[in-house]
């Protein structure tokens, strides 16, 4: 791009309102490694951004400049930070910032800075009323977006927005029962939510997971969930009859489900039943050969 | 996903590297020679007749790699002749080092990463780093150092823990007095302490986010530079332990989902602190073993996500550290019984052979460079981490109580899949620079700077 594209703004170097600023070109030194052949628009905006950093100017035009830099390179954490400090210094309209972030997030859903920036703005605003629906829009694009889940946990916990969590979890598991991020969120609600976790709750959650295991027995997520829930309740697997029933139900159907065998292995270990442990490890090595070395280790560790 | 190197999600699937172009590998129909049944019993592969988005994406990957793996599974092609194409990868790494194309502006805040990824990749490929490249690397890293300590993503940017880690690793690879002289040690320590939070975590930069990468990116350089002070260590292990999830793997922050990139960072940091006993190692070992994909042989980053070549390092090195830590626990138990202290050899917990097959057959781009999976293009990040993962998979390691470090196991034969010439030098599973570089930088900085 020699100048800018057809519909773009002029370069900062061509704008009268920036004539008072002397641009500072990038100094890569005389013999750089990995220098980037900067496009003209990025080189131009960065030269003005460096000049602004040097003078610590906080102004409306800085917001436009940082938006240009961030728009071209969303990972530019220094520009994000400078924008944040400027927004707070100017007492800018924070709702407008949320819109700015949302537009950026749709294009760059996995950029650390965008999510952190939104958190800082919402924290200052003290109003998280639109945040869960924002996250839901982002999860509709990618239901396993790690940053979106992290931001969701921050918002829900900080502002006590627990009411809709299990409803959204159910909806997302209905859409994809293998979405491990959603299973993790369910566990997080059990562990951190306002409702005290009880033995009865444990039974209900095991039944919930067992239903979803019936849909797709080789789906790892609900199996791991059950282990977590039992641990959260302070119990051991072998002492929960429903788990044994779940595992043996596949034997009755003549189905080999490695996750069920692995659960039975852990129960045998809890009972210190060495011979059953070894038998199951052998079965697993046969039916889950990629992990044969791990199952062999488990057999040795039990001895 | 790029986990370390700013931007992304290691997905972290995340940023697939800066390179937009992808080399299309058509998803061919599943060959009818039985690849499907080969996998059907096992974890992950089958959709149980209940397809969802996750299982459909998984099936697409399995279908697309079948033509690459099948000839070697059914014996119609000879695995022993499969080569790591060093010349092509070497060319890929070197060709743009003096002028990166304009789309690399997405990595304009990751300059030290570009230096580290390329130098470490060349090191692993056995390519001597040309003197001009060394001089330029030193100058570029020096230009990224902040006068008040720490390294930034580029000249004039804010110092940040991730490029600080990358810069110190790159200087360790170069390993000359001139390279070591770049680092302002007292200022670096002061920067690390400024990032430290009361709960033991670190913010990545002033005003930045907290996650477990910060612990690794602070402690790794601190160990190399002999500034791992009690104030710096304090509380880190406890914070990291809070990030272990009910699944057994480790998340970026407490509460999130277990994830390969963060698991590596967390575990490597705990090993540097010698505080692995803070987490449930058997639970972690079980989670790690489940991350190896039954059909592909490579690792995924999270449960029910897709394979990605970069996890060969993140998960493979984490598995190696767990193996060594469990062997250390075993040695301590035996010492209690017998009163005699002897190191115990670790037990393998993942299968190195299918992992290497995945790397050699699916992650080598025909035009040079390594990649996430066949339908993705190569980039520097994946070239660095896929090769690092190959090195860890080829070599055996053990805990040495005399050296107080994880070291290559001299008694074990390397496990080399394909041509014997595929053997790579040994990378350190904690720091991810070649093993001799660790000793060299530690010995250079063996005196505390206060003396």
TrEMBL record, chain A:
InterPro entries: Prenyl_trans_a. Pfam families: PPTA. It comes from the Eukaryota. Its EC number is 2.5.1.58, 2.5.1.59. GO terms for molecular function: CAAX-protein geranylgeranyltransferase activity; protein farnesyltransferase activity. Keywords: Magnesium, Prenyltransferase, Repeat, Transferase. GO terms for cellular component: CAAX-protein geranylgeranyltransferase complex; protein farnesyltransferase complex. Its cofactor is Mg(2+). The keyword Magnesium applies. Residues 1-11 have a biased composition (Acidic residues). Residues 1-30 are annotated as: Disordered. Belongs to the protein prenyltransferase subunit alpha family. This is Protein farnesyltransferase/geranylgeranyltransferase type-1 subunit alpha. It comes from Geranomyces variabilis.
From TrEMBL, chain B:
It comes from the Eukaryota. Residues 1-34 are annotated as: Disordered. It holds the Pfam family Prenyltrans. GO terms for molecular function: protein farnesyltransferase activity; zinc ion binding. Keywords: Metal-binding, Prenyltransferase, Repeat, Transferase, Zinc. It catalyses: L-cysteinyl-[protein] + (2E,6E)-farnesyl diphosphate = S-(2E,6E)-farnesyl-L-cysteinyl-[protein] + diphosphate. The keyword Metal-binding applies. GO terms for biological process: prenylation. One of its GO terms (cellular component) is protein farnesyltransferase complex. Gene3D superfamilies: 1.50.10.20. The keyword Glycoprotein does not apply. Its cofactor is Zn(2+). Residues 84-433 form the Prenyltransferase alpha-alpha toroid domain. Binds 1 zinc ion per subunit. InterPro entries: FTB (IPR026872), PGGT1B-like (IPR045089), Prenyltrans (IPR001330), Terpenoid_cyclase/PrenylTrfase (IPR008930). Its EC number is 2.5.1.58. PANTHER family: GERANYLGERANYL TRANSFERASE TYPE BETA SUBUNIT, PROTEIN FARNESYLTRANSFERASE SUBUNIT BETA. Heterodimer of an alpha and a beta subunit. Belongs to the protein prenyltransferase subunit beta family. Catalyzes the transfer of a farnesyl moiety from farnesyl diphosphate to a cysteine at the fourth position from the C-terminus of several proteins. The beta subunit is responsible for peptide-binding. This is Protein farnesyltransferase subunit beta.
């Amino acid at each position: 791009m020699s100048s800018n594209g057809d519909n773009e703004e002029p370069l900062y170097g061509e704008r009268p309102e920036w004539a008072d600023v002397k641009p500072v070109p990038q100094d890569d030194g005389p013999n750089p490694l990995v220098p980037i052949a900067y496009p003209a628009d990025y080189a131009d905006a960065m030269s003005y951004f460096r000049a602004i950093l040097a003078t610590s100017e906080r102004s409306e035009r800085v917001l436009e400049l940082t938006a240009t830099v961030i728009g071209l390179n969303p990972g530019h954490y220094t520009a994000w930070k400078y924008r944040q400090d400027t927004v707070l210094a100017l007492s800018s309209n924070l709702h407008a910032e949320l819109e700015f972030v949302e537009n950026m997030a749709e294009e760059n859903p996995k950029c650390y800075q965008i999510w952190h920036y939104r958190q800082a703005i919402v924290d200052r605003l003290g109003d998280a009323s639109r945040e869960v629906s924002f996250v839901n829009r982002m999860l509709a694009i990618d239901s396993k977006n790690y940053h979106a889940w992290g931001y969701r946990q921050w918002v829900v916990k900080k502002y006590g927005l627990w009411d809709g969590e299990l409803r959204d979890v159910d909806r997302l598991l209905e859409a994809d029962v293998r979405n491990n991020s959603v299973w993790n969120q369910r566990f997080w609600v059990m562990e951190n939510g306002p409702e005290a976790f009880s033995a009865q709750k444990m039974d209900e959650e095991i039944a919930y997971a067992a239903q979803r295991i019936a849909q797709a027995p080789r789906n790892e997520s609900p199996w791991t969930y059950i282990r977590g829930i039992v641990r959260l309740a302070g119990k051991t697997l072998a002492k929960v009859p429903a788990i044994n029933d779940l595992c043996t139900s596949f034997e009755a159907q003549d189905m080999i489900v490695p996750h069920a065998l692995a659960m039975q292995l852990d129960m045998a270990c809890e009972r210190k039943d060495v011979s059953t442990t070894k038998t199951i490890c052998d079965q697993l090595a046969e039916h889950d050969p990629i992990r044969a070395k791990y199952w062999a280790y488990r057999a040795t560790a039990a001895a | 996903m790029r986990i370390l190197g700013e931007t992304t999600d290691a997905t972290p699937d995340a940023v697939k590297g800066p390179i937009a172009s992808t080399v299309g590998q058509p998803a061919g129909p599943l060959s009818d020679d039985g690849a499907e049944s080969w996998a059907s019993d096992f974890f992950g592969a089958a959709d149980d007749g209940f397809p969802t988005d996750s299982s459909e994406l998984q099936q697409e990957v399995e279908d697309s790699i079948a033509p690459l793996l099948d000839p070697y599974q059914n014996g119609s092609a000879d695995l022993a002749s499969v080569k790591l194409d060093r010349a092509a990868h070497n060319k890929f790494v070197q060709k743009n080092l003096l002028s990166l194309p304009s789309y690399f502006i997405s990595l304009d805040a990751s300059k030290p990463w570009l230096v580290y990824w390329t130098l470490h990749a060349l090191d692993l490929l056995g390519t001597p780093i040309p003197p001009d490249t060394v001089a330029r690397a030193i100058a570029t890293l020096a230009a990224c150092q902040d006068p008040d300590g720490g390294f930034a993503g580029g000249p004039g940017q804010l110092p940040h823990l991730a490029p600080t880690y990358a810069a110190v690793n790159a200087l360790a690879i170069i390993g000359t007095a001139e390279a070591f002289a770049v680092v302002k040690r007292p200022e670096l320590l002061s920067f690390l302490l400024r990032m430290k939070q009361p709960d033991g975590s670190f913010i990545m930069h002033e005003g930045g986010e907290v996650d477990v990468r910060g612990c690794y990116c602070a402690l790794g350089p601190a160990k190399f530079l002999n500034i791992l002070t009690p104030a710096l260590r304090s509380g880190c292990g406890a914070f990291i332990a809070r990030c272990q999830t009910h699944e057994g793997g480790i998340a970026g922050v407490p509460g999130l989902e277990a994830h390969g990139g963060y698991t590596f960072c967390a575990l490597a940091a705990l090993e540097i602190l010698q505080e692995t006993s803070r987490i449930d190692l058997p639970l972690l070992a079980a989670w790690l073993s489940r991350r190896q994909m039954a059909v592909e042989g490579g690792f995924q980053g999270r449960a029910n996500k897709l394979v990605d070549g970069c996890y060969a390092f993140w998960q493979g090195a984490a598995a190696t550290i767990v193996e060594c830590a469990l062997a250390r626990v075993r040695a301590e138990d035996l010492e209690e019984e017998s009163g005699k202290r002897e190191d115990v050899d670790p037990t393998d917990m993942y299968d190195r052979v299918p992992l290497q097959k995945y790397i050699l057959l699916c992650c080598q781009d025909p035009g040079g460079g390594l990649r996430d999976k066949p339908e993705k293009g190569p980039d520097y990040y994946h070239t660095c981490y896929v090769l690092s993962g190959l090195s860890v998979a080829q070599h055996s390691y053990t805990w040495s109580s005399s050296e107080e470090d994880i070291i290559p196991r001299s008694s074990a034969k390397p496990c080399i899949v394909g041509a014997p010439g595929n053997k790579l030098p040994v990378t350190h599973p904690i720091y991810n620079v070649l093993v001799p570089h660790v000793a060299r930088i530690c010995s250079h900085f063996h005196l505390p700077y206060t003396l």
